[in-house]
């Protein structure tokens, strides 16, 4: 049985989420503040953690940073509409998704199942991906070029994984956007994708102006590998 931690200070919302998760067969733990959450996360292991951004004694970003220091467990943020723009920071910390209040519980359940399926597939596959002199270790989400680790944001890492998952095949811009949607939500569109491709190339290419790893196929999209 998969274990999920829900950190939500609104007890009515937390109760509704807990009931729905248990109906779906998940073992669910609830925390209503940051203090209890730090203790719970430190002494237990979970398959997925849901974090409210605003808490009475802290915030979800601090918890996400704490979580990422000890594990790569998937994290989903719950956020009010006026906090939505701040979730970009959470995504860059390594969160997997976010959902805006008010939300439909069925949508949250659907997102959770999708993330868990993706993590399950990743854990059942080889941990290492090799592209040129780039090594991607999916077990710890690290990217190494030669012998030097390349620091990537969560979105850059998922973008690289999306591209390398289809090595040798041309991916259209829409296909790439679909591959990273669950990480970036509405914050990445066709225009900003160009910016993220550029940033990624600057980090992994020997000559970003003449890319050999992420190649542009004019009029069609991008390709990694031959």
From TrEMBL:
SUPFAM superfamilies to which the protein is assigned, alphabetical: C-terminal effector domain of the bipartite response regulators, CheY-like
CDD domains attached to this UniProt entry: REC_OmpR, trans_reg_C
Occurrences of domain Response regulatory (ranges): 3-116
Residues where 4-aspartylphosphate is found: 52
Domain OmpR/PhoB-type per the UniProt entry, residue ranges: 126-226
Keyword terms: DNA-binding, Phosphoprotein, Transcription, Transcription regulation, Two-component regulatory system
GO biological process terms held by the UniProt record: regulation of DNA-templated transcription
Keyword set includes Transport: no
Gene Ontology annotations for the cellular component aspect, listed alphabetically: cytosol; protein-DNA complex
Cleavable signal peptide: none
GO molecular function terms attached to this record: phosphorelay response regulator activity; transcription cis-regulatory region binding
Function: May play the central regulatory role in sporulation. It may be an element of the effector pathway responsible for the activation of sporulation genes in response to nutritional stress. Spo0A may act in concert with spo0H (a sigma factor) to control the expression of some genes that are critical to the sporulation process.
Name by which UniProt lists this protein: Stage 0 sporulation protein A homolog
Annotated source species: Alkaliphilus pronyensis
């Amino acid at each position: 049985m998969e274990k999920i931690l829900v950190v939500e200070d609104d007890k009515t919302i937390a109760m509704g989420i807990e009931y729905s998760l248990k109906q779906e067969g998940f073992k669910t733990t609830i925390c209503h503040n940051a203090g209890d959450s730090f203790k719970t996360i430190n002494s237990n292991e979970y398959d997925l953690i849901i974090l409210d951004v605003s808490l009475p004694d802290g915030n979800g970003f601090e918890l996400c940073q704490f979580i990422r220091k000890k594990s790569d467990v998937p994290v989903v943020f719950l956020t009010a509409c006026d906090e939505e723009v701040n979730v970009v920071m959470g995504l860059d910390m390594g969160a997997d998704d976010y959902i805006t209040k008010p939300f439909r519980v069925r949508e949250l359940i659907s997102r959770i199942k999708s993330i868990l399926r993706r993590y399950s597939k990743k854990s059942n596959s080889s941990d290492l991906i090799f592209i040129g002199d780039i090594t991607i270790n999916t077990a710890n989400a690290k990217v190494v070029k030669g012998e030097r680790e390349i620091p990537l944001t969560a979105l850059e890492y998922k973008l690289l994984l999306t591209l390398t998952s289809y090595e040798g095949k041309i991916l259209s811009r829409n296909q790439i956007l679909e591959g990273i949607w669950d990480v970036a939500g509405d914050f990445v569109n066709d225009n900003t994708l160009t910016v993220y491709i550029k940033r990624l190339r600057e980090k992994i290419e020997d000559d970003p102006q003449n890319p050999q790893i992420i190649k542009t196929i004019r009029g069609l999209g991008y390709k990694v590998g031959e």
